[in-house]
């Protein structure tokens, strides 16, 4: 089937550059090898976020929020298999702008406008499709479900405790890290990108001149995407690029801000969103969730195991 189109102009990470402190405290990051964990969480189909190992029993968490393009691929695969695509449709009244899901410009922005039930179904499907893709590769697994090398992948929403672990709650810092802002430079050549991203009616030439003036002021900006004071060309009517800005010390993007994230505990989201004040984007803050929203998305946790190791099937 045909691949989805590429976004036609600048990527966010090329347009905005943060100068962050180089020191990273990785003392809480789990560092184990495959043979110790019997897990291969890093093996994911094209387009899906990578994952960061979180627990000693092999659970990993997506490095970024699940983007629109992954949900599109989900729908595409369901359609090809004769599945119920209608049940996966986003709520159009819960999108930040009307073309948020259909426009390729937003392909790598977080999927929103989905229900808890839709996300749970997606997670289950995702585990099955990753299992299939891994086991069809003879170097990794086996198509024989009784083989010792057969790999089973589980995928689900994180629990609140897992989400807070990923947000470095053990440090006792409101935002998990000492730094939440840094000097920033904006690429003037990305003026057209910022015009579309912000929805401003200003001409690209005016935006380019204003970006240069902004850079001359040696600005510093929070890399948590919350409702902060911005020059007009940085204001967002939508969430932002899922891989935008610096990561936390686990290597996770946008765990705080951008979109509030669903967890297993129903009716609760974590991390706050682009429309929230900074005080709602702390490690321990909770926000209510009652249905599809332009401010709520998700990321998955995932684990891959080989349940047949040590088992010899009867012949």
TrEMBL record:
Gene Ontology molecular function terms on file: formylglycine-generating oxidase activity
Domain (Sulfatase-modifying factor enzyme-like): residue spans on this chain: 57-301
Listed InterPro entries: CTDL_fold, Sulfatase_Mod_Factor_Kinase, SUMF_dom, SUMF_sf
Pfam families: FGE-sulfatase
Name of the protein this chain belongs to: SUMF1/EgtB/PvdO family nonheme iron enzyme
Source species of the chain: Hymenobacter montanus
